[in-house]
Amino acid sequence: MASVVALLVIAAVAAAPVYGKDYTVGDSQGWTSGVDYTTWAKGKTFNVGDTLTFQYGSLHNVDEVSSKDYSSCSSSNSIQSYSDQNTKITLSKAGTRYFICGSPGHCTNGMKLAVTVSDAAAAAPAPSTPKATPAAPSDDTPSTTPKTSTPTSTPATESPKSTTTTTSTKSTTNTSGALVSGPAKGLVVGVLVALGLAFMG
Questions:
Q1: pTM
Q2: Which helix (H) or strand (E) holds 196?
Q3: Average pLDDT per run of 10 along the chain, which is 201 residues long?
């Protein structure tokens, strides 16, 4: 029974969703003229799964562009263009993403944003799984497997390796003010499900 509970907990943790952070570009000022978006982005860590929300008036838009078009403030070859005044863009892959306002003169006056997106999965530790322990043979089942050992040799210059695991969780507050924790929330749900199944069985 304990092995079933352990497997359920491991499955729940492995399947736990990762919650990204939602950044409102320009914070309360939004996507508009007169905001220094380089300063706004400074000090922020953008990860895969995070979202950028651009809030702007009808005189503006959001164009995702290449690095070259970002530097020259050109939206003629935009990768994607938005004009819905409340654009939410998910940062789906690592790398640098470039955004400008395509309205004439707005980008050259500072309405541009470059964000470097990190791969959150690369920074997170890999989940560990417990090693399976073979069941001890019972008294009524004779063991026919001969016990043998194979000697192994380790070079004298090799020293034992030490590993340290650092666990990092990212918590954010959603729009209702409730605390949302990615892997921790999945773990709690998994444990509750496993306990419920254990008591039912």
A1: 0.55
A2: helix 182-200
A3: 51 53 97 96 96 98 98 97 97 97 96 94 54 53 50 44 39 39 46 54 60
